[in-house]
Amino acid sequence: MSQKTFFITGANSGFGLAVATAASEQGHTVIGTVRSEASQAGLAERLPAVRSVLCDVTEFDRIPDVVEQAEKDHGPVDVLINNAGYGHEGLLEESPLDEMRRQFDVNVFGAVAVAKAFLPRFRERRRGFIVNVTSMGGMITMPGIAYYCGSKFALQGISEVMRTEMAPFGVHVTALCPGSFRTDWAGRSMVRTERSIDDYDALFDPIREARQAKSGKQLGDPNKLAAAVLSLIESANPPPQLLLGSDALKLVSDRIECLQQEIEAWKSVTVSTDGQ
Question: Is the pLDDT of residue 186 over 60?
Answer without folding.
Answer: no
